[in-house]
Amino acid sequence: MEGLKVSDANLVVYVHPSKSNKVPQAVLRELSSLLFRFNESFDGVVLAYDVQIQDKIAKILPGFHPYFGVKLKAKLLLFAPKPNMLLEGKVVKLTERSIHVIVLGFSSAIITGEDIREDFNHKIKHGDELFASRSQKRHVIKVGTMIRFLVKSFDEERLHISGSLLPANTGSIRWLARHSEDFSVSDRSTRKRSESEGELVGGETYSLNNDHQIKKSKKHRIRE
Amino acid sequence: MGAEEFGYNIKEQTFNEMEDDDFNHFSDSELVYHVRDALNSVSSGDCDSYNQLVGVMHHSKGLAPDEVALLVTSLKALSGAVSYIDISLHEALLSSIFDMNMWNYGPDVMDALLGLIISLASSNGKYVESCLEMLVSSFTPPFSFIDMLKQPRGIAKKDQVLSRVHLALKHIADLVPLAPSKLCPIISRKMPIYEKEPMVVVYAENMLKLESGAIGEFVSSTMLMALMDTLIDLDVDIGWDGILHDDSSKGIFQMEIEDMDDFADYDEEDGTEFPRELSRKSLGGNSTAEKLDSLMVLTFEHLKSCEVSGRLTEVFEPLLASFRITVLTAYKSKFAQFVMFYACALDPENCGVRFAVLLADIFACEDYPLSFRMSAVAYLASYLSRGNFLSAPLVASILKRLVDWCFEYCNRKGGEMNPTSHRLFYSGCQAIMYVLCFRMKSMIDVAWFKPHLLLIEQILKHKLSPLKVCLPSVVEEFCRQAEAAQLFTSSEEFNFNDLLESEHSRAFGGMERLDMFFPFDPCLLKKSDRFIRPHFVYWSMVRPPYDDDECISDEDVVEEELDLDVSKMSITPRNPLSYWISNGLEEPRGMPARIRPSTSPESF
């Protein structure tokens, strides 16, 4: 899955003087306040950190409250989805006109009807709603399925993702993994694409060449 | 589905402009398309059908069946077209949806409305907060419903609404995992603390329902802490100041420092009062006190249910944190602390021990400000004295910590008597004496505690002279008991005769009068009292060592004599636990430092 990165950060945490006898605790508390929020300077949502205090000596800020700056080196795990990245998530709700997905257990994503490719047909089987591919009968998306989808936009303030299932390399991860070979072959043959070389990287992961795919598949879409 | 049945009505009433004559019957998806078109047409300046749609949302009370049908259908169609709603373009529609009040509608509309709210919340992060606010607003009924809440019809309606609202909150949390973190501040903010009692109670019920419900995992601690904050807010609203000056003869809550047997004189002779009398006027019709009382009862019932379901230890941690952060730091909290007391009573082995240890830790920890440490030890003393569920070994082990601390203080600091600069030390000494006033016999029976008991003499005889500084009423009762129990080698120093309070005790208590702070004195709230009473040690139940040989005072009525005789028989002297009368429900005779609810049916 894309959208995750590890960054090395040099940080200075300003610790209130009342916390001077428990600096590590104060530092961790400060770093914890970064979690699950989008941070512009890191350009991502901090998911985890591993921190090392650099020096026993801290600079004291002159002023009414003599905060002192503790220098840190931290490894930050960041979640920074950008448009056209491929993300993976679990389907939690499915209606005729939308698929609701949760990514990494905290960020919600929605794929609306227009962003689900025509190939997927909404059905109700044994009382459960699902999307089944017309061309690949076994390619099914239902509640609980892990799917791979394309990011259309990311609301940084609310950590809400708008996604798309238009590209052919999106859909149920399990099915994609099993049919990665067939899929790429059939995809090429059905869509008569000559330039799709290099689309497969490392068996299961797809490259970033998504712009192209969107354009392609849009042509295939029939919309009212 | 309802939508098909009502399709014809829709055609007639709302969407006729969008429709051609060849449609007699709509399917759900067709309706969605119409709504979608209505929404889309706003951007092109054609607002007619959109305005009609907004108009439908404003239908609220006394709906005819066809209006209900129209509303349900429109709501359902809207849920299918949420992705076409634009936050700025369709502001009117959104605000009319969020203004809808669940309590005004029947089950069909409620279901459709919640369906729409869930779809909105999950379709776009921007709507999540508004949706949650709308659901939280539905926690309380409109004012017109208040009187109905106690009738069967009202209760049924309440269940109908609230079960749906909570289900919707759960659905939203399933779809938007970060929603609970947004829900918590909304709930704390919207707490209708100044509304009438039934409103506050219903709201708190909802908070507790969330706490134990499906998303409790995420919101439990915030809900409990918010509830404790509310209790404290109400508690401090019933100020001490307004209740000090009333004549004690008129007091609804009269505190007696003197038990008839033990301290016969003070009240009558000098008219000295503790600053803790709530007048009939100030509390009798005090809606804040009633509100607080009802919320406390609700909390007690919730704790009880947690105990039954085995969640008490889990719930206790946030309570403890909340106590440390808000209750302990509030100026002489009067009632809210009984939540802790009750939780401890339900599970003395875990919660009861945790609470005592926390208080002792705070007292001993130098990181806390002085007044908090003094408050903590006042809580500790009162708690150890009043909880009939605490085992003697536990009380002894905590007392040992206090004794050791005071002993070390004497050795470390030394110096002469000085009430202000050794405040903490004096509060520690007073705590030890206060607990021993209540538990002298059982402490003597704990064999390993004996050496520490003997240390007390050295502390009290130190040059810091705690006996001269601590509250004279406590000192005198303690000395009397210590003498009877032959605790000390020489007794001349303990012949201490003074008033209820002294100049020195005032000085060490400071402005806050922490010298006179006994947080777990009998609970004054009428309804809460019945939860606390069975776990509570009243002064009348305490049998001080000097009582052994004496007859029971003549003033006691026959019934009370019987009670005591029974208690004598039930107590085996070897058993360290035994000097309580285990059945706390019996009528107390009186107690020192007591306040009592005279309106309570069980009062004396």
From TrEMBL, chain A:
Protein keywords: DNA-directed RNA polymerase, Nucleus, Transcription
InterPro entries xrefs: NA-bd_OB-fold, RNA_pol_Rpb7-like_N_sf, Rpb7-like
Cellular location(s): Nucleus
Location of region: Disordered: 186-224
One Gene Ontology cellular component annotation held by this UniProt entry: RNA polymerase I complex
Gene Ontology biological process terms in this record: DNA-templated transcription initiation; transcription elongation by RNA polymerase I
Function: DNA-dependent RNA polymerase which catalyzes the transcription of DNA into RNA using the four ribonucleoside triphosphates as substrates.
Protein name: DNA-directed RNA polymerase subunit
Organism: Quercus lobata
Gene that this polypeptide is encoded by: LOC115974467
UniProtKB/TrEMBL annotation, chain B:
Gene: LOC115994915
The name this protein goes by in its record: RNA polymerase I-specific transcription initiation factor RRN3
Any single Gene Ontology cellular-component annotation: nucleus
Family recorded in the similarity comment: Belongs to the RRN3 family.
Biological processes per GO annotation: transcription initiation at RNA polymerase I promoter
Pfam families: RRN3
Taxonomic classification: Eukaryota, Viridiplantae, Streptophyta, Embryophyta, Tracheophyta
A GO MF label: RNA polymerase I general transcription initiation factor activity
Source species of the chain: Quercus lobata
